Amino acid sequence: MTLKEADGLKPGVIRTFAVLGIIGGILQFLNVFFDEYVLGLDKMAHDVTIGVIDLVSAILIVIGLIALLAFHEKPGKNLLVSFLVLFFGMSLFIGFKYVESFALPMLYEHARPLAEDPPSPAQEGIMVTFMLFALSWLYFGISLLIKRQLPIAGAIIAMIGPIADFIPIDFGIQIAPEVWGIGIVWLSLAVFRGSKASDAPLDRSGAVST
Question: pTM of the full predicted structure?
Answer without folding.
Answer: 0.83
